[in-house]
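Dear colleague,

Thank you for sharing your sequence with our group. We've completed the structure prediction you requested, and as agreed, I am returning the results in plain text so they can be pasted directly into your records. Please verify that the sequence below matches your submission; if there's any discrepancy, let me know and we will rerun it promptly.
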Amino acid sequence: MDNITHSLIGAVLGQAGLKRLSGMGMPTLIIAANIPDIDAACFFWLEGQEHLGFRRGITHGPIALLLLPLALTAIMIAYDRWQARKGTRPRERLPVRFVPLYLLALIGTISHPFFDWLNNYGIRLLEPFSSRWFYGDSLFIIDVWMWTGLGLSYWISRRRERARRTDWRRPALFGLAALATYVLMNMAISTIAERMIRTQLLSAGVTPTLVVASPPPLLFWQRDVFWRNDERYGRGKVNLLGDSDVDSIGNSTGMNDALIQAAVGKDSSAAAFLFWARMPFAYRDGGNLVIGDQRFSDELAAGRFSIAIPLTASGPAQRQAGQ
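Please find the predicted C-alpha cells below.
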C-alpha cells in the first residue's frame, strides 16, 4: 500500500489506545508502519528494472520484522534522552520504556507487510529464507475509501481526546473494526470474481492455469480479472452491480521466444523483471522484444512495468521510452 495508508494505520492504532503504553508511542507506531519501505532507497544504486526484483523482499521478511523494530526503538529512546539533556523534552510525555516501545514498533512494522500483501504487486514474506512471492489480490495499492475511513476515525478520536472526553479511543476502535470488515469484503469480492471468470472460461473450452483478480481504483465492487495458460493470455471484467465478461480467445503469451532466455542470461535488468513478473507476456516491436506483465499492462503503466530487449541480444536490455 502507499505510505499515506501505512501512516494512517499506525496513527489509528495509536488512537485506539496503544500510544499510552509508552512515551514516544505515536511516532513510533507511525514510523514503524512505514519502515520496511527503506528498501525504496534501492533506486539510487540499482539500474533499469532491477529494483522490481529487490523491493518488498528482505526488508519485509521475518528477520527484518524483528530487527527493524529493535533499531527504531533504540533510535526513539536515544532521541528522548537527547531531548532530556537539552531540556526540550515535553513535560507531558509519558516515560519511555524499552519493552512496551519495542512492542509498539513490532506491531507497527508487522502491519506493513500485511497490508502490502493485500494488493497484487507482490511481496516476498519469507525472504531471505525463500524468494516466493505472495499476493492478496484484494485492494488497490491506493485506496481512497481506506484513506477516508481511517482519516475520519483518527480525526474524531483526536478531537475527543483534546476535549478530554473519556471515550476518545472509541472512534479509532470503530475505524479498525470497519477496516477489518472492508478488507474481508474485498477478499470475498476477489474470490467471487476469479471463480466467475474461471467458470466462463471453462464453459468456452479454455482451461486457465492462473486467474488473478485486480481491484481498480475507487470501484471496489468491480474487478479486472487476468487469465493465462501456457500459450495464451486474456482478461475479463466483473461488476457485482452489473454485467461481467471475458475475452476467452486472448493473445499469445510470446514467452517461448528464445531471445528471452538469452537476454536473461546476459542482462540483470531482464532477469530482475522476469523474477518479479507474475504474468509475463512478450511481443516484438521493431528492433526490440518487449516484455510486460498483465497486471500492469494498461497504457499508463506500460512505460514503468515493461522492459525492451534488443533483438540481437548482444547488449543490455533497454527501458522503453517513459520509464
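Summary note from our side: The CA atoms of residues 26 and 33 lie 11 Å apart.

Kind regards,
the structure core
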